[in-house]
Amino acid sequence: MRDYKEKSSPKGLNKLINLFRADPEVPQSNSEEYYSTHNGFSTRSSGTSPDYSSDMNPVSTSTLPYNLSPLNPTMLSPFTKSPWVHFGGFFDEGPTTGLVGSLVREEGHVYSLAASGELLFTGSESRNIRVWKNQHEFTGFKSSSGFVKAMVITDGKIFTGHQDGKIRFWKVSRKDPTVYKLVASLPLMKDFIKSSINPSNYVEVRRHRNTVWIRHFDAVSCLSLDEEAGLLYSGSWDKTVKVWRVSDFKCLESIKAHDDAVNTVAVGSDGLVFTGSADGTVKVWRREMINGKGRTTRHLAVKTLLQGESAITSIAMSTESGIVYAGSSDGKVNYWDMNRRFAYGGVLRNHKMAVLCLAVSGRLVVSGSADKSLCVWRREEKGEAHTKVTMLTGHEGPVKCVTVKEDEERYQIGSDCRGQRWVVYSGSLDRSVKVWRVAEYMEAQSEPNSRAEYDLRRKL
């Protein structure tokens, strides 16, 4: 499906030659070089992308002036092997909520992160994807271009969205868990060339500029994966949402979703997809499979949940309760109940500046904001009421990304009841990633523990 206005393009060989000349970002290969480092050794693939820079790799290709300066104290630090600071035993007793550890790096803003089992993946404008295990650097890999703005993970497979408009698919080696290989860069080169030959596949994206519909021509800002349907959704600043089939990486559909940049996309249940945009709207789309056996898709707009003046920055959904949350630039989090035909539930207010990210796990809702804080809410068991659990403060810049997972440890509430705790990871434009522990129930509503945080600042 192509919602852009189609334009004709030059025919034959001249058209294809002009296409490649006009667009220097056309991928020349789906095999990019990657580096994985572990225990001081570097493993190199057969591609051509730059090094992955790591504490455990004595060689770095960074060209930042400070990194080349003899004043750089990195090698003199006794903590070079352990960038995380962990308050061991500090939260072992009671339902205390607060900071567990912090990482600060001089390699750029942290735009994306994702947790999978014992592993934490972080992406930044350095193009590095770092992998952490038990609060220590485990391994990493790096793309050849494009800030890492979005990330989704499933079963050892990683999709990353980049500033250069590409989506990259990585897979962990079966033989070595520290090695991640680049499998594909979307759209595939063969699909791009095949599509470029047919003039009907061109759409107008800007004045006097056409491109093939299967490719994002601006930054990929968000990703969402429907594992059951085998589909990947990508949202972009080019105002579209594209649908990719995971099995063969083909682009099935391009949806002209909004009148401004798409900032967030989230997959719901029963074939529903939610999108939010800088145009101030939250839209609901219903997926239909056409051409038999799911060969392609068609998405129809079924409802606009919100239409306001403030940009929508993030959407998160609780599959357990059917509640959809949307954060916006006015500092609010609005929510709706899918089980009641998207009835409006209310608004969560606590931030002084824009909400930039949201995460939901169980009955916990976490919002990160440009005011440098995170707010934790608990949805009550009956009704749609939400109770503020705590505020998490400590970042020195806007909180750009957040994810939540269950803590394996529980805390004692009564003589025969143990409460749930959660681990919250937050990435910020202050170039740090922080790890928090949050108790679902606290004895009294309060601010997080005020014990001073100790950041280990490292220059790479």
UniProtKB/TrEMBL annotation:
The keyword tRNA processing does not apply. It comes from the Eukaryota. Pfam families: WD40. Residues 27-58 have a biased composition (Polar residues). Residues 16-58 are annotated as: Disordered. WD repeats lie at residues 213-254, 255-285, 305-339, 348-387. The keyword Aminoacyl-tRNA synthetase does not apply. Keywords: Repeat, WD repeat. PANTHER family: F-BOX AND WD40 DOMAIN PROTEIN, OS12G0594000 PROTEIN. This is Vegetative incompatibility protein HET-E-1-like protein. The lineage of its organism: Eukaryota, Viridiplantae, Streptophyta, Embryophyta, Tracheophyta.
